[in-house]
């Protein structure tokens, strides 16, 4: 026997849905948003980049969350979090690449993405987060990459923390590499620069070509820890490596000057920031190798 819901229950449900649609993003995603709940389905985790480090280590309330789920533009403020009064992304490109908005995220396009096109792909395309600086904290991003050609060289995708004040950029000598990878490759590199010194570590097994991953970093006074897919993978306790200035997020699709590259797309589903007030201490990850940094501006 089929049991139909009562008229009262159907009316109440309709009122709730209508109220949510009228209220819009501010009510659906209020400024007290917490870390995604641990009971999130496996399918939802996979589609958004796997389990997050915020879930694994209980980072608590987000300071801000850029997820572009309610029609926000690239230049819009974060749509939820405890600190959503400021913050916007600024795009820069010196080649054919562009950043495009898509449903629930942003896409870095190396150029026009269309089968059979002969248009060139070269140069760098960047998104820089402005007006959300922090000296210490946690940052996490969900991303996946796609390679659309077999000839040419692979682009590199970089997620970094860079000095928030452009005057302190110093040719990248104080950047923290949250993640560096290439579409079609399976290697992930993390690291940090500190003047003439640099530390880095490269891992295998990070399949690209559409496989989603989460990448995160935690910067404390005496330790930097890197995460991927919800677990600690590397850490560094060198005091000299810990940045001394406020930082911000920069994401870049990097080519090789005017050289022709393999057509690529990187989809960023969301970018989130957290403070250090909550959460469990992450276990130490793999050690980083020390080298030198000598790139010029």
From TrEMBL:
InterPro entries in UniProt: ConA-like_dom_sf (IPR013320)
N-terminal signal peptide: 1-29
Organism: Nocardioides silvaticus
Domain of life: Bacteria
Protein name as annotated: GH16 domain-containing protein
Keyword list, A-Z: Signal
């Amino acid at each position: 026997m089929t049991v139909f819901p009562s008229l009262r229950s159907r009316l109440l449900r309709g009122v709730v849905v209508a109220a949510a649609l009228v209220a819009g993003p501010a009510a659906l995603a209020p400024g007290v948003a917490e870390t995604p709940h641990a009971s999130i389905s496996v399918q939802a985790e996979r589609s958004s980049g796997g389990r997050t480090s915020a879930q694994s280590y209980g980072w608590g309330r987000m300071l801000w969350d850029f997820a572009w789920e309610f029609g926000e533009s690239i230049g819009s403020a974060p749509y939820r979090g405890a600190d959503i009064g400021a913050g916007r992304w600024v795009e820069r490109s010196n080649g054919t690449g562009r950043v495009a908005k898509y449903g629930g995220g942003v896409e870095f396009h190396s150029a026009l993405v269309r089968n059979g096109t002969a248009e060139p792909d070269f140069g760098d395309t960047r998104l820089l987060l402005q007006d959300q600086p922090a000296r210490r904290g946690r940052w996490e991003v969900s991303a996946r990459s796609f390679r659309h050609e077999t000839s040419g060289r692979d682009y590199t995708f970089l997620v970094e923390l860079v000095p928030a004040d452009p005057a302190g950029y110093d040719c990248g000598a104080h950047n923290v590499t949250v993640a560096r990878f290439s579409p079609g490759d399976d290697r992930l590199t993390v690291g940090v620069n500190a003047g003439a010194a640099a530390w880095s570590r490269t891992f295998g097994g990070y399949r690209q070509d559409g496989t989603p991953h989460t990448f995160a970093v935690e910067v404390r006074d005496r330790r930097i820890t890197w995460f991927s897919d919800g677990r600690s993978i590397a850490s560094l306790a060198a005091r000299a490596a810990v940045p001394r200035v406020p930082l911000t997020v920069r994401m870049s699709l990097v080519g090789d000057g005017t050289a022709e590259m393999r057509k690529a797309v990187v989809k960023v589903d969301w970018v989130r920031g957290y403070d250090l007030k909550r959460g469990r201490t992450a276990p130490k990850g793999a050690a980083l190798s020390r080298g030198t940094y000598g790139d010029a501006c």
